[in-house]
Amino acid sequence: MEKILTKIRTLSPHSLFSEELNSNRIFGLDLLRFFAIVTVIIDHGKFIFPKKIMELHNYIKFDGVTVFFVLSGFLIGGILIKQLEHHQASFSLLLDFWVRRWFRTLPTYFLILTILTVCYSIKDPLFTFDKMASYYIFCQNLTDARPPYFPESWSLSVEEWFYLTIPVLIFALIILFRCKPKNSILSIALFILGAVSFLRYSVYINHDIEKSQVLYHIVIYRLDSIMYGVIGAYIHYYHSKYWSLIPRYLFLGGIFLIVLQKYFSISIIHNTFPDIAGLYYVVFELSITSIAALLLLPYLSGLKKIKYKISYVITIISILSYSMYLTHMSLIKDMIIYSIPWRDFTKSYRIIIPAMYFLYWGLTLVFSALIYKVYEFPITQLRERFSNYKKTKSLYLNK
After folding, report:
1. pLDDT one-digit tens code per residue, 198-210
2. Which one of 126, 186, 299, 378 has the minimum C-beta count within 10 Å?
């Protein structure tokens, strides 16, 4: 009996993730990542429910992907800033930055993409590989709307193109024009924020209805969300006294913006403000969400640990968030859950719908834990072998 109990304990979430839970993580950032992934999975799981519940979801949904963008910009931007401040800008340093980033993101992405490609080829007789070829170079939504296959991959394209192109611009200013890293980063940040805002305004002013409905998922219209996070990293590093001056008030300001934005979105749904709805939705909504997420960071980045056991659950889900994002929708919901002949077992939707939703969450957690422990984490650790520079101490692990 003791042996059985010992085996059960070794399979418990706390034991499986003991190394991560005992590391020097920042709980506040784990909490924000937890919030982001949970809102995304809830949003994509709403289609399991009847139409009335789906409509009710509009009152509680939140843009978790934009939160991911801002948090990613804050973390990776912080790493890039420290590298530039401790090493001379060069192609080898830029390549090292890319290699470290790609070891973290590309292997798991390509794994899920390849599995889905096989699944699509089996499920859809009209499917051909060329329909997925653009996904392997992150061009599926570079300038146009996301295609129907693996739709959640759009956000990976935004991140990869950001971290492929923006560092090049920053390094170019430093190397070619002898700019200081501090000035180069700020100049490129302001340029990207202005350029993307101008592009979205052009869509609005030209009354491009078709483009306005899909720009949320197009790379060139979303780069600013990550840049807001980089600006956070810039302030945190170069102006730390301001970063930690009024964190609680900034946090409350971020919550206020979230609530205000939710009210405004619902008002748009009900056509309360029809004259400014288009301007708000196309030009300002994404920026306001990014700013709200940015305002949360000064307080959350200082929240190291809490004593409650619920923090373990939050941290574990935060650790699994990348695998959860890649697997929950196309692979688990569309390929597995929707393929089960539920009505062969029962005709009652009171049983079918809860069973589908429970399986949706259960498989997402199990698959993500398996992928993380067996594949994602071991490969991420390999990046140290290919780095020519000392590991830059980050605010966050596994970035």
Report:
1. 999 999 999 898 8
2. 126
